[in-house]
């Protein structure tokens, strides 16, 4: 409460004018900024335009995190930008942006947006088209959160801050710019973004911003499913995924993304598996390693697959049929809220189905497994399960040793396993 009053006084004092934050205060080391992004700013400047690095990159650099990408804001129009850069293409209809393509990096450039006077909205207030351009100050009002509305001038190394974003960042607080009820209506994805950024910066959401999440969460149903899917992947790869999912659940937003999450979080075993999977994902993100969407989704939905599998197996006693039908049921339920790319669905199903093959170690089957393009993913999945006691650790280690052996050794290992199995069978018969 006290913080909120201070915040309001500070905004009042700023009277719509920006604060200029110098290098010694914000602490960003220019060497941590993409050279391509700096080059794009310099080129735009040389052509007589303003250009700043904005958004997540500046937020993350202040926090000492490695930015995912670098976005630029300028007063040049998309056509002017395209004219300046050889390898540039205009993308988007609703929000026209320019991508400048470099080897291994794409720099996204947006033109300063104008105040929302002429923009086209649907019956709920959702913005449909928004291609009116304005000043930097107007653009800053159009961004979602104060911590995402910081403009870094690569030349002077000064940050221009219209909404006290650096202060909020130090307080680790997510604050929507403007009237929360209107801003969520304009774009309900901001509800999910608020939760994601709060988890990412390991902070909280301000009371005003939080209050309207509960009141307006139903608006999420209007978001196109493909955009919702993208947002789910961003949530799972935000670097603090479990905290983010728990926040999603405690705000009752899981029904729009992963309806089965509630049941998964109730069970200690499933929760343990989820924690181990997501901690590993966070580590990969921290080390700038790639994360596969199919693997991630396969992990999140695995506890539910197992529940369905057990139900099926009780009835038909067939491992393969039970797993196939469990996979189909879980995917079908998930598709009721989110559209998932066919290739991702097929990869998830393969990972799940291959789990049944790791239990039995047979000559032909084991060698055939190796040929499957999803083998590595399925094997990594086994290791995850072993870590959370959902798969026999000794068998998992056997697979690791088997993979490290040459073909001859592989065959011998399988023979030994089968001999032991046969002996056990004989003892049983005796
Ligand atoms: P990250 O890339 O780490 O997910 P980000 O903040 O850079 O985080 P982007 O989606 O890349 O997020 O968007 C870049 C910037 O564009 C944001 O920082 C914000 O200023 C603005 N922005 C993005 N999405 C919205 C939105 N839905 N409403 C208003 N502003 C937005
Ligand atoms: Mg970004």
UniProtKB/TrEMBL annotation:
Entry GO MF terms: ATP binding; poly(A) RNA polymerase activity; RNA binding
GO annotation terms (biological process): mRNA processing; polyadenylation-dependent RNA catabolic process
Sequence ranges assigned to domain Poly A polymerase head in this UniProt record: 51-174
InterPro entries: NT_sf, PolA_pol_head_dom, PolA_pol_I, PolyA_pol_arg_C_dom, PolyA_RNA-bd, tRNA_ntf/polyA_polymerase_I
Hydrolase among keywords: no
The keyword RNA-binding is assigned to this record: yes
Transmembrane stretches, start-end: none
Top-level enzyme category: transferase
Ranges of residues in domain tRNA nucleotidyltransferase/poly(A) polymerase RNA and SrmB- binding: 204-263
Keywords: ATP-binding, Coiled coil, mRNA processing, Nucleotide-binding, Nucleotidyltransferase, RNA-binding, Transcription, Transferase
Coiled-coil regions, chain positions: 403-430
Residue ranges of domain Polymerase A arginine-rich C-terminal in the record: 319-425
Catalytic reaction(s) noted: RNA(n) + ATP = RNA(n)-3'-adenine ribonucleotide + diphosphate
Pfam family, any one: PolyA_pol
EC number in record: 2.7.7.19
Residues of the active site: 69, 71, 144
Family listed: Belongs to the tRNA nucleotidyltransferase/poly(A) polymerase family.
Function: Adds poly(A) tail to the 3' end of many RNAs, which usually targets these RNAs for decay. Plays a significant role in the global control of gene expression, through influencing the rate of transcript degradation, and in the general RNA quality control.
Protein's recorded name: Poly(A) polymerase I
Organism field: Candidatus Kinetoplastidibacterium stringomonadis TCC290E
